[in-house]
Fold this sequence. Notes:
- By secondary structure, the protein is an alpha+beta fold.
- It folds into two domains: about 210 residues, no CATH class; about 190 residues, no CATH class.
- The chain is built from 14 helices and ten strands.
- The chain has a six-stranded mixed beta barrel with strand order 2-3-8-5-7-6, surrounded by four helices.
- The chain is elongated and about 110 Å long.
- The two termini are about 40 Å apart.
Amino acid sequence: MRSSHSSVSNGSRYSSHYALFIGLRYSFSRKRNRFTAVIALVSMLGMTLGVTSLITVLSVMNGFAGELRGRILSLVPHGYIEQLDGGISDWQALSDTIAGYPDVVAVSPYISDKVILGAGNSLRGAVLTAIDPVLEAAVSGVGDSMRVGSLDSLEQGTFNVVLGASLARALGVQLGDSVEVTVPRLTVTPLGIFPRSKRLTVSGLFEVGAQPDSYQAYVSLRAGQKLLGQRGQVDGLQLKTTDLFSAPQTLSSLALRLPDGFRATDWSQTQGSLFRAVKMEKIMVSLLLLSVVAVAAFNIVSTLVMSVAEKRSDIAVLRTMGAQAKDIMALFIAHGLGLAAVGVGAGAVLGTVLAMNVSNITLLVENLLGVKLFDPAVYFISELPSQLKWQDVAAVVCVSLLLSFIATLYPAWRASRVAPAEVLRYE
């Protein structure tokens, strides 16, 4: 009984080996029907093109997401502390208390509201944020993003303002010019009720290369309290934590320690919709490009169907020699996966090379054509960013091979159903 069991297991092992060997031989044999060979080549090239495109586009989208995250989050604090029923009066004491919590690096007060800025005939909506320049420098990176002037200039004049570079261009103002700010507050005079407005002097321009450049403006805390009617109060406190990506957990634990009537929010809540939109866009583009891989994978169906018709006599001979239906099925699965593996492997290599050199390729195209493909004034970038993630490469390769495997099942099953007696009757 033991020898019988051993011979059965050896026979099963040998049958799987010869099925793999013959299947790969069918895939790369030169003695094939020319039309079948052309279809097989088209299938491999389609797989290569799809995998290359998918890896390259995913890397570029990773690069864009990284640029967006780095530029916007360099300006955005990690978290905020606000009072639910209005401003915070004794914010200095609360700031000292919060600064002593674990994982909190710096705290800064702020007042923020939407305003209208005007200069000449130009009007623009903006977000006016009143800050303490010294404390703000420890919380956000706006001080490091100053292109002209400095953040400390806000304290040098009572009503100085620092503007985003794109906002300044839209208003047509430069350093030293004046802008008229209209705030959503009303001033009651004997002549009637008028919106509150004030002339501010531009003392600096910042640029992070993202959307805040087009709407953000900063004034000193004293000026903001006068303009926005927050005498002695602030809207809230901005926080910087030890790690940006652990900030949601830090703010959640901090919220449990705050007095009643206060709430804590983190950057993923204030900016999360933008990054969720980027993530959703990446998923949708991946699905669209995956359809190219799917079409190429299912081209393998036509290749194997023709191969089964071409190899009917071979199948019959193998069956008469003792090959089982599952062996024939394994043979043609190996045949299809052999073709797919070459296409996927070539696509993975080409996609990786392109993803690592897409910026250099873009620069080469710009030099050859004599044009600037990415104008920084329009796209906030000067070159095409790319960030290759090996988990993306692995996911693309695995999904492509899975689709190819699914595509081989039906032709392989048809091959296993070939009746040897019927085929050999006419040989």
